[in-house]
Design brief:
Length: about 550
């Protein structure tokens, strides 16, 4: 039995399949409570708080990307609107477990209708719902087996962040899911763990528990009952690939010496060592949300300064690009509420829009950054998220100058900003393309939905056109234009981005060695030819194939 999905974390993994498919049973419709409504409401609120606390603790133990994801999920568990809905249902006589089920279902339907970043979180709500109901009813949650001598292949319809946060490459050989896309939580966490992963794999949960499975996280192939020779051949190819990758060291550059600095996306100080060990030349995206998650009050300037200084000290010779607080949509923060209820939060006050409504939060953050930068030898750059117009870029640059920050930039994640990039570039010192959101808004495609993974494929020619335009605008203005979305983690696409004129590429640390090797084996002219051919295609698959025809060493590298 051979299946195929989207390879999102390279490498070969094999082992017995462990299917994570059981769910907590739905509480009976019409279930009522016989006791005191206030006591029943208190039970529900305590269960929500317990689950939120467990998720936060699990995130703290896991660190890295998992911490940010799980803390955001914990906030959803105690969303005020959700709590009000549960209390209201209990006041009408509904038993707490059933009230939780109905409230989460309504919340989930709303998020799915919104789409975008908020839509991505709909699947997370199923996991939250089950955890709260299990807490209320004393049920055991379906869990993962304890680590054994043989790593297993984890197979699921989708994976909740809480299921994977504490896994290691020693316990799990690979991930396979029926849902998800290249920038889904499963993909991001698999790459952070260095575990092969395939998502959007139709029929994955039809695999029989315990059957031996071979997973190719590069090609997306999933093979049941492989022969010994199948496994040996796949591992031989993977070993050769890794050896070829490991031979390339030093800063990112093409075969003919064109520099393409390779930077790391990090979520806080805990991620810095992994970035350094993978050869990052600096930080291309420092997400500052982790400092603000799960708090009633914003962190003070001194606490922020310590966190930023750690990154500058870790990379004294390279750039450290810090993104100011990116709140709103899927990252609602108690310390930064929107001005009013929003019918479509993914298209509402988020990123810089929300910071402009809370200038005191931005002022404290910029002051902390300026203090950290002044006391270090690192090169600090600060950029704002979700900038749409030249006026917004001008406002942010002025705020940075007022705080004595020498380099201000913006993330280009909105199609309007990409189309008018020349206007935004004129107002700032650099720009960086956030390909995850740019693709999501350009194609109206939720990145968590396996059914839409083709639309969210970063090889889509329309996305390449947007990137080409904004990178050309930066080059014409003589200012750096980088890419910091997950697209840069694809070795072939990284070469195309270099060909389009990217001044730097930033990605999860685990992806850096393969990208470094892909660039080192190809000339700038090959990268440019690959980019031109990819843009001339009409489909993502066609663009990938057209580019690879010029990037002749990718196959030899096993990429």
């Amino acid at each position: 039995m051979n299946l195929r999905g989207v390879g999102v974390s390279p490498g070969i993994g094999h082992g017995p399949a462990y299917l994570l498919t059981a769910r907590v049973p739905e509480p009976p419709e019409g279930a009522t409570h016989a006791g005191d409504a206030d006591q029943e409401k208190e039970r529900a609120v305590m269960a929500l708080a317990q689950v939120a606390g467990e998720l936060e603790a699990r995130g703290d133990r896991a660190g890295g990307e998992a911490r940010e994801i799980l803390k955001a999920q914990a906030l959803m568990a105690e969303d005020p609107g959700l709590v009000v809905k549960i209390r209201s249902l209990i006041d009408r006589g509904t038993a707490a477990p059933r009230a939780v089920h109905e409230a989460f279902t309504k919340y989930r339907d709303v998020l799915e209708g919104v789409g975008g970043y908020l839509g991505e979180r709909a699947a997370d709500l199923d996991d939250l719902r089950d955890r709260v109901i299990a807490q209320l009813t004393g049920q055991e949650l379906p869990g993962l087996p304890p680590p054994g001598d043989t790593p297993y292949v984890l197979v699921a319809h989708d994976l909740a962040p809480a299921d994977t946060a504490l896994l290691s490459g020693h316990a799990v050989a690979a991930f396979v899911t029926e849902e998800g896309g290249p920038t889904s939580h499963t993909a991001i966490m698999a790459r952070a763990l260095g575990v092969p992963a395939v998502v959007a794999c139709a029929g994955a949960t039809t695999l029989r528990p315990g059957v031996e499975v071979l997973v190719d996280g590069t090609s997306g192939e999933v093979r049941a009952r492989p022969t010994e020779s199948d496994v040996a051949r796949a591992e031989s190819v993977d070993t050769a690939r890794q050896a070829a990758i490991d031979r390339v060291t030093g800063p990112g550059r093409t075969k003919d010496g064109h520099p393409v600095p390779l930077l790391a996306n990090v979520g806080g100080p805990a991620d810095l060592e992994a970035a350094r060990s993978c050869g990052a030349e600096g930080v291309g995206l420092y997400r500052t949300e982790f400092l603000f998650l799960g708090r009633a009050e914003p962190p003070g300037a001194e606490e922020q300064e310590r966190a930023y200084r750690a990154a500058l000290e870790a990379f004294p010779g390279g750039p450290v690009i810090v993104r100011t607080l990116d709140a709103g949509a899927d990252k609602p923060l108690a310390v930064l509420p929107p001005g009013s209820a929003e019918p479509n939060p993914a298209l509402g006050e988020r990123g810089l829009r929300l910071l402009r409504a809370h200038p005191e939060v931005l002022e404290t953050q910029l002051d902390a950054l300026a203090t950290a930068g002044a006391g270090s030898g690192g090169r600090l750059r600060v950029m704002a998220p979700m900038v749409t117009t030249a006026e917004e870029a001008r406002w942010f640059a002025a705020a940075c100058r007022a705080a004595d920050l020498p380099e201000a930039g913006v993330m280009i994640e909105v199609p309007a900003a990409a189309l008018r990039a020349r206007d935004l570039v004129a107002e700032v010192d650099f720009v960086s393309a956030g390909t995850n959101d740019l693709a999501q808004y350009a194609f109206a495609a939720d990145r968590e939905l396996g059914a839409l993974s083709e639309l969210h494929d970063p090889w889509q020619p329309a996305l390449l056109d947007l990137l080409a335009g904004l990178l050309a605008a930066a080059a014409q203005a003589g200012k750096p234009g980088g890419v910091c979305g997950e697209a840069a983690a694809d070795p072939g696409l990284a070469c195309v981005l270099a060909g389009l004129g990217a001044a730097s590429l930033s990605m999860g640390p685990a992806a850096l060695p393969a990208v470094r090797a892909a660039l080192a084996y190809h000339t700038l002219e090959q990268c440019r030819a690959a980019a031109e051919s990819a843009r001339a295609a009409t489909t993502a698959a066609g663009a990938r194939a057209a580019a690879r025809a010029h990037l002749t060493e990718l196959e030899a590298l096993g990429l």
